[in-house]
Design goal:
Distance between the termini of chain A: 25 Å
Number of helices of chain A: 15
CATH superfamily of the largest domain in chain A: Glutaconate Coenzyme A-transferase
CATH topology of the largest domain in chain A: Glutaconate Coenzyme A-transferase
Distance between the termini of chain B: 50 Å
Helix content of chain A: 10-25%
Number of strands of chain B: 14
Radius of gyration of chain B: 24 Å
Shape of chain A: globular
CATH class of the largest domain in chain B: Alpha Beta
CATH architecture of the largest domain in chain B: Alpha-Beta Barrel
Oligomer: heterodimer
Number of helices of chain B: 13
CATH class of the largest domain in chain A: Alpha Beta
CATH topology of the largest domain in chain B: TIM Barrel
Number of domains of chain A: 2
Largest sheet of chain A: 8 strands, mixed
CATH superfamily of the largest domain in chain B: Phosphoenolpyruvate-binding domains
Structural class of chain B: alpha/beta
């Protein structure tokens, strides 16, 4: 394991002119060569061969506790331990696993969560103690600050949900031990997320780890007699099953009710997005869209629903992050299916458990770069957020404008492959303009971003002459992006000063294919 | 956090800060005998605008003639017009800067307001809450009201006045008519002194009971306008909010040639009568009819009160439609979400528009043939009907109901 503090890293400029390190945590890297330009060869990674004769004939893989399971998996210093964020901020399993590893005396682990949450702040203490060497996965709040202040011994690596799958599949990250939180499981290791007191919906984020890791541990607080049906995670991939009192705090796993924004300005943005889809002819029979659980996205779904009803239009499928608002579309016959990657509220969880048209998906189905085809490109339109976007339509979702880590990438990058990628955002926050000359951290190349919708108008990427043409003559406030930027700078009293970033890389942002898109620099 | 107090010494504070405050700032000003200007700044936008805020603070203090002071600023992402207003307010509260002010850059003024312009909706904006100003016009009400009266705490009248003055100058309110609701007289006269120089389009006068109150405001406006060389019209809309006001409705509407519209405030009116304000509004039927009649008698617009339940869009629609049927031309809004419903409620029906268009066409046809009598089919159309049809078609065009 390398220590970034002790070495000077070599930098190279990638196709977008961003300076990126050529090695990360000791591994050589490929600077982003452009969208679709990277063509890896060779064979996919694979877990070691296992034989069922080595597992109990009666199928009972239960062990006393996580510590025992980790010991049996042969936990050693420097291993890669993975967890998943389907329990979101309610998750207790990640910290249970890391603390058990600490008790065993393991050092220099690489923690590989599909995303981290405030409930996992304890990881900071474990980094200080040397148990965790570094984290490859989203970091925000105190964990993000720990990283951007340069305190982490290794470099952070931010990947999209699809990019995490890609990194596991092509062997860039080899997971030694995957610890999967399961709201329901049987003693064989079959696991499901849509039932049980800690139900969360889909377990899709854990799928790659369950099939590629050397060892897989399932941790559940709802053990049912074999078989656990449906099995989102197959027991055939699982080494050990651990039963615990509670895998998470249900109140933080899903929200009871997801809230639509009440801000008139954000509602206006949401309505403009829906109207855009209608006017551009994207909202038509058999269409598809994806929208997350943010306040604007939820409101967008409500506006679009009204327009679909008015025009007598039905969607073939919608992609979640599911919420009660998508579930209502399904129940009212306005979509044939929900293809769900992550389930945000109780209505979503219930619907997945009871309605076969509400399908649990994983990043393999939805976003996988090494798949034979890309689901994400079959989606007609996607509505996303961002912290910054520049005049070339490049966008930043991972850092504040001052360079501090703010969000993980999630499925954001992967969604950009849809037919129409829309960023819905306010044109300024407090006094900080959202449209800038150059984004602080490149997370999505402008060629992948089609439309920016703000409360002050809609900017269409000049590359999308088809969209520009489609909405010509409509009443939509279509404006050049520079025009909106100038208006906002006037309101804010001039261009913002560029914050000073350090010259030491503390994390990298990967593109969906594993090449390095940008660097997150240390801040003071 | 709200920590606005006026201290007896040569110090003053204005504005708000804290984690739940947005687009505002808190300024603590302390005068001193010597040592020049010392400014401390904490701002959530410091990396981007810290330098700009410091420069602006120095410019504002210089304009106010302050040479020696300690100024502490806690900024929560306020825009420059707010920063200037809060520094000026804190300085004044410390007893300094009298008679001087700093003004933000002048935004292009909208075209002057015609007396009979569309006034279907007017969106109330609390005069002490700058965060609501900047995007108000995006929701496209016919007018915005920067309110200095009931939505502003009595201890904040001085600061709101400065903030509203700066907003009139710096904020782009688009195509909206820029209205200011002043306080009751005599406090309202101080409001006028602060804001008339920034060319608002209309002054709402609350709780008017006597015509001479309107005349007094008209005189003061004329005086300031002539002193400042302002030629744009500045209309007056008296609000009748008591039984006595209603009794004097016609005299009030006719008290000044600058009155463009007459309106009613139902919260205060029903309180004055000692009755409950209901969603159907039967208790105020008489007063509202009286306002409509007095307004028309005086040749001004009749405008209705607000609908208080922002969650009840069906109730709002029913109220608006009934209001239009009574002869009102618009009403107030307390939330942007009400604007569209109100505009729909005050929109003439397609049948009304169609009929009016036919009458107008018949009138134009008669004109071109040199006929004095307008007829449509077998019917003769009286001149008042023609006049009403012309007006309705004009209105429908202004609303975008016809092209």
């Amino acid at each position: 394991m390398s220590d970034i503090s002790s070495k000077r890293l070599e930098l190279a400029h990638n196709a977008l002119g961003r300076a990126v390190p050529t090695t990360v945590n000791g591994k050589p890297q490929i600077p982003f060569p452009g969208v679709g330009k990277f063509q890896p060869r060779g064979r996919k990674a694979a877990p070691p061969i296992s034989s069922n004769k080595d597992y109990p004939d009666a199928g009972d893989k239960r062990v006393a506790d996580l510590e025992t399971a980790l010991r049996k998996c042969g936990l050693r210093d420097g291993m890669v331990i993975s967890n998943h964020h389907h329990l979101r901020d309610g998750d207790k399993v990640a910290m249970m696993a890391l603390e058990a590893a600490a008790r065993i005396g393991a050092k220099d682990l690489m923690w590989f969560p599909s995303a981290s949450f405030p409930s996992q702040q304890g990881a900071i203490e474990l980094m200080k103690k040397g148990v965790i060497h570094h984290i490859e996965g989203s970091m925000n709040g105190p964990l993000g600050d720990y990283c951007t202040q340069g305190k982490m011994r290794g470099m952070g690596v931010l990947r999209s949900h699809g990019g995490r799958y890609q990194a596991i599949q092509d062997g860039e990250v080899h997971v030694d031990i995957a610890v999967i939180a399961a709201p329901t499981a049987d003693f064989f290791g079959n696991a499901d997320g849509s039932h049980g007191k800690s139900a969360c919906g889909s377990l899709g984020f854990a799928l790659a780890d369950s099939t590629y890791a050397d060892h897989v541990i399932v941790v559940t607080d709802n053990l049912v007699p074999f078989p656990c049906v449906p099995w989102q995670i197959q027991g055939n991939n699982v080494d050990y099953v651990v039963e615990v009192e509670s895998i998470g705090d249900p109140a933080k796993i899903v929200s009871g009710t997801t809230q639509i924004t009440r801000s008139p300005d954000r509602l206006r943005i949401a309505e403009l997005v829906a109207t855009f889809l209608r006017e551009a002819g994207i909202m038509k029979n058999g269409f598809s869209f994806q929208a997350g659980a943010g306040g604007i996205a939820l409101a967008f779904v409500q506006y679009l629903k009204g327009m679909m009803k008015e025009d007598g239009v039905k969607a073939r499928f919608v992609r979640g992050g599911s919420t009660k608002f998508l579930v209502e579309l399904l129940q009212e016959g306005l979509t044939d299916y929900i293809l769900d990657g992550q389930t945000f509220d109780l209505d979503g969880v219930k619907s997945m458990a009871n309605d076969p048209r509400h399908v649990a998906t994983s990043p393999f189905t939805s976003y996988n770069y090494h798949g034979k085809g890309n689901f994400a490109s079959l989606v007609d339109a996607v509505v996303l957020g961002a912290t910054e976007v520049d005049v070339n339509f490049n966008a930043n979702v991972v850092t504040h404008s001052d360079g501090r880590l703010l969000h993980g990438i999630g499925g954001w990058q992967n969604c950009l492959f849809s037919g129409c990628s829309i960023l819905a955002l306010p044109s300024f926050r407090d006094r900080i303009p959202v449209i800038v000359d150059e984004v602080t951290t490149m997370t999505g190349p402008g060629e992948m971003i089609d439309v920016i919708v703000t409360e002050r108008g809609i900017a269409i990427n000049p590359r999308r002459t088809d969209l520009l043409h489609a909405v010509m003559g409509s009443k939509l406030p279509i404006r050049p992006i520079e025009d909106i930027k100038e208006e906002v700078e006037k309101i804010c009293g001039g261009k913002p000063a560029r914050p000073k970033l350090g010259d030491r890389p503390c994390a990298v942002v990967k593109w969906v294919d594993g090449t390095v898109l940008d660097t997150v620099w240390q801040v003071e | 956090m709200n920590s606005v107090e006026t201290k007896p010494s040569h110090s003053g504070e204005a504005g708000h800060w804290g984690k739940d405050i947005r687009s505002d700032l808190h300024v603590a000003f302390e005068a001193r005998e010597n040592g020049g200007i010392e400014i401390s700044l904490e701002s959530r936008v410091a990396p981007y605008y810290g330098q700009a805020i410091m420069e602006q603070a120095r410019a504002v203090l210089a304009a106010l003639g302050v040479e020696h002071a300690r100024v502490a600023i806690h900024d929560e992402g306020a825009l420059p017009f707010t920063i200037g207003a809060r520094i000026e307010a804190a300085t004044r509260r410390a007893g300094a800067g009298a008679g001087k002010h700093w003004l933000p850059e002048q935004h292009r003024l909208p075209p002057p307001s015609p007396k009979e312009r569309l006034r279907r909706s007017r969106l109330y904006l609390p005069g002490s809450e700058p965060k609501y100003f900047i995007n108000a016009a995006l929701h496209a009400p016919d007018a915005v009201i920067l309110d200095l009266e009931d939505s502003v705490h009595r201890d904040e009248k001085d600061t709101a006045r400065i903030l509203v003055r700066n907003a009139l100058r710096a904020v782009d309110f688009g195509a909206c008519e820029r209205m200011v609701r002043i306080n009751q007289l005599p406090l309202g006269l101080e409001d006028l002194a602060a804001i008339v120089g920034q060319s608002p389009d209309l002054i709402l006068m609350p709780k008017v009971e006597q015509p001479d109150q309107v005349a007094e405001v008209g005189r003061m406006i004329a005086e300031i306008k002539s002193r400042e060389g302002i030629t744009r019209p500045l209309w007056i809309m008296p609000i009748l909010e008591s039984a006595l006001g209603i009794e004097n409705a016609f005299a009030i509407a006719a008290a000044s040639e600058h009155v463009a519209a007459l309106t009613i405030g139902l919260e205060d009116y029903t309180a004055d009568l000692g009755v409950t304000k209901t969603a159907e509004g039967r208790e105020s039927q008489y007063a509202r009819s009286r306002v409509v009649n007095a307004a028309h008698a005086a040749g001004v617009q009749a405008i209705d009160s607000v609908y208080g339940d922002v969650g009840d869009m069906d109730g709002l629609r029913r109220w608006g439609e009934a209001s239009r049927a009574m002869g009102f031309e618009g009403m107030g809004c307390i939330h942007p979400g009400q604007i569209r419903v109100i505009h729909e409620a005050f929109r003439p029906t397609a049948a009304e528009i169609g009929k009016a268009q036919k009458i107008v066409a018949a009138f134009e046809d008669a004109q071109s043939k040199g006929l004095a009598v307008v007829s449509l089919g077998s019917k003769m159309i009286d001149p008042p009907v023609v006049h009403r049809a012309v007006k309705l078609v004009e209105r429908a065009k202004a609303m975008g109901a016809i092209s």
